Amino acid sequence: MLSDMDLLVSLCKRRGFIFQSSEIYGGMGSVWDYGPLGVELKNNVKQAWWRTYVYERSDIEGLDAAILMHPSTWVASGHVGSFADTLVDCKDCKKRFRLDRLQAKRCPECGGEVTEPRKFNLMFKVPIGAVEDFRNISYLRPETAQGIFVNFQNIITSMRRKVPFGIAQIGKAFRNEITTGNFIFRCREFEQMEIEYFVEPGTDEEWYKRWVEERFNWYIRLGIGKENLRLREHPKDELAHYAKACTDIEYKFPIGWSELEGIANRTDFDLKQHMNESGKDLAYFDDEKKAKYIPFVIEPSGGVDRTVLAFLVDAYREEPVRGEKRVYLALHKHLAPVKVAILPLLRNRDELVRLAKDIANTLRKRCKIMYDDTASIGRLYRRQDEIGTPYCVTVDVESLSDHKVTVRDRDTMEQKRVPVQELETYLLGQLL
Ligand code: GAP
Question: Residue 307's closest CA among 10, 124, 29, 38?
Fold first, then answer.
């Protein structure tokens, strides 16, 4: 596990995981681009989550709602009225800070006097349509959840669902964050993985407990060290306006214990608010009990970027090997951006290159591979270790006569000769 975030920021840039947005223009604060390996890792995280909840369970449907929503959505949800930070400006250096970050009511950067606190809404305004008058103002969504609430009836009806059931969504969210920095921990543009799980009132506390436990264990199943995770229940005065209870899953990031995901009991707040604002009846009719009610909602809400960061931090390893430092990412095989690297030992032996390329072309149809012949084998292994590739396949001169290749395991560094004929089956078996 890693204790210095700068090491990771540097590895991520050097190895094509994550770049600062618009870097050639000096960068865009708290906005990040995922490079060739970053997009693979991020997609793998999202797929692992989607597989667990939408495919492996029978009680959850998927959704991909639009980022832009009717402006009334954000009035109903409470975001127009109360999604705000309290800020002050420094009268000397003109920088802006969150009130809760100040000590002794002075500027934390230059010590200058600060203005009276003011509320600052975190949503990005978007003028919709050609005429920029106030009726056409909406917002980039600050959470994906509202797209689920407004589609509750559509999904119940089209999918013939009965409560309890859930709706899962992964998508972008935007917040004009004031406290920036800390790499991809807090971004202005980020992704969320959210489930709104609809339950009968009275059963909500039991479901809430189940979801806290389920989400905690999901991270562990994908390799996060249990000792680096903890639960923190919100005290009453910290609860969001919509929540009856909320537990954060916290991870021990290099910046200290911080929120990775929140699981909230949102009660019937959102559905009721949308009923009032839209005038539509969003109550559920329970056929068996012949009862009508507004379901309560349990919401596990995680950030994709924060989850990627936690997996990277947790996977980071340094160890001495033959007098040198070996750096590797012990990522779970399902998450590793590249699954297999094909490394020909010589690049000027036609037969050997042909065999290596044949192997690469066969495997590339099954998983993400990388072909690399641009350095000595020691360096090639080091490169693959640093990006967390679970298996390296080396094609050497002997391979031409014994029709076997060497498969090296990232974590143990053990090497094994495997017949070329059996390679695909062997590797796919390991990667499952
Ligand atoms: N729908 C509930 C909701 O949005 P939240 O605690 O504000 O709750 C949920 O956000 C998760 O989204 C957080 O636990 C975090 O992982 C992620 N998240 C929130 N703001 C973020 C930001 N500015 N940058 C990166 N991730 C963020």
Answer: 38
